[in-house]
Amino acid sequence: MDKYQEHLLEVIADLHGIPEGAYNIRSNGQSVGRASTAHIEIEPQKDRPGINVYIKPETQHEAVHIPVVLSQAGLKDVVYNDFYVGEGADVVIVAGCGIHCGSDDGSQHDGIHTFHIGKNARVRYVEKHYGDGDGKGQKIMNPETIVHMEEGSYMEMETTQIKGVDSTKRVTKADLAASATFIVKEKLMTDGVQFAETEFEVELNGKDSSTDVVSRAVARGTSHQIFRAKVIGNAQCHGHSACDSIIMDDAKISAIPELTANDTDAALIHEAAIGKIAGEQLTKLMTLGLTAEEAEEMIIQGFLK
Amino acid sequence: MDKYQEHLLEVIADLHGIPEGAYNIRSNGQSVGRASTAHIEIEPQKDRPGINVYIKPETQHEAVHIPVVLSQAGLKDVVYNDFYVGEGADVVIVAGCGIHCGSDDGSQHDGIHTFHIGKNARVRYVEKHYGDGDGKGQKIMNPETIVHMEEGSYMEMETTQIKGVDSTKRVTKADLAASATFIVKEKLMTDGVQFAETEFEVELNGKDSSTDVVSRAVARGTSHQIFRAKVIGNAQCHGHSACDSIIMDDAKISAIPELTANDTDAALIHEAAIGKIAGEQLTKLMTLGLTAEEAEEMIIQGFLK
């Protein structure tokens, strides 16, 4: 791996070198390192690019790292990763994609991740998307996350795209059996002429299933963001979605949540707000000695924290 | 007018006989009474069914009644009513439609109302939709309301559909110049196999324009409701939309608000909630001596008040 890729790995997966536990590192469309453990087996998919990750029932507090880095110009990489999380397991899965672009040719990574989460299993899924480099080529990432949750299972998804991704369409779909819980925390920032579209669709099919989808977004420059979140209640369930956005410069933001109650015992709520940074917040920080730019930056960092 | 029509008039427009001020009463597709006043002139449209209503500038505290009643089976009535509200006028416009159905043949009324609201004018627009009768025919109403608001104008729209409308698609579109304000209060109840779709689209084009769109809805039986509200901020503006729904029996409700900020100084918010009547509310009223049905009815009345 070159120095650009090493830097990307650090940003997207907090990795300095080879991670502990199970991992698969994909670089420029190839697997460049893979390790299984006693409880977590990773093997390549047979008929398409990508891996299968098998996590044994009751596996406790282990981690899987599956970062993807691209520094080769003009590459379009599509990968399918399937996760089978056994009953009662409790694991952390760290994905993420970094693209370094040093030329006029763009690069694209489309990662389709499918999770089969067993009864009472718990998954924390962390995903970061990042781009850098001086090249003019477009850095494009289209992650798709499909989550099937069995009874009593729990998944928390933290997804962050702060910098350097020129275009993204992010699709997340989940279906929940009884007493399953799906939590999403999305952080998104776009700048320049970037475009980001996010789409969540959560089906609450089982009794006492619940979801909480929260997105915080900042749009700067002339960037454009579209946020969609569908929550569908087909049983006695609780659903909440929220989208808070800061709009700056000449950016544009649309927020389109959608609640559908197909059951009398479905309780569904959403809120959304789009606005600019309040003038009094800026003034207050500037009286403490910060410049206008520093004050703005501090507020954005706090908002996306 | 027959006794069914007289009852409809009373329900939709609080009218016992002929109203004071300007009016146009439409019955079974025909105008059956019309009066202008010194400040408000009503004339038939030249090339299509409907009327033009001209309200002189600075007209103060006058009312216009334009109810529509249908009791003839099998009638499909389409009407275009255009309102020209002069600068600085302050008026109340009471519309509404009632259908009585006594046979197996349905009736349909599609009213397309267009408002041109002059500078600093104020309009309170009240619209009720209601159906009754023992007939099995479908009572269908598709009201469309188009509102063009000049600088500093104000419109408050109260729209109520509580009973007896089998199918409705309600479309309301407004565009606002600087400092204009558009307020909507919608109350909706569906029962049986009724279907109701509501669509609001408000474009905040002028500096300091604002809107507040609030819908309260109850869905009973196996009825189905869809609520859409788009608020588009194209300038320094404030927009708020909210949809609160009570779901009962085997009803289905979807709420799909949409916020789009095309200007950094657009501040937009929406909320929506769908849920059933809280058990503790029912219990409390029942300990005061009400039956479960009476308690439910009282809560619904309070919610839609």
TrEMBL record, chains A, B:
Give a GO biological-process term. iron-sulfur cluster assembly
Domain of life of the source? Bacteria
InterPro entries to which the protein is assigned, alphabetical: Fe-S_cluster_assembly_SufBD, SUF_FeS_clus_asmbl_SufBD_core, SUF_FeS_clus_asmbl_SufBD_sf
**Ranges for domain SUF system FeS cluster assembly SufBD core:** 85-303
- One Pfam family it belongs to: SUFBD_core
Membership in a protein family: Belongs to the iron-sulfur cluster assembly SufBD family.
Query: Which protein is depicted?
Result: SufD family Fe-S cluster assembly protein
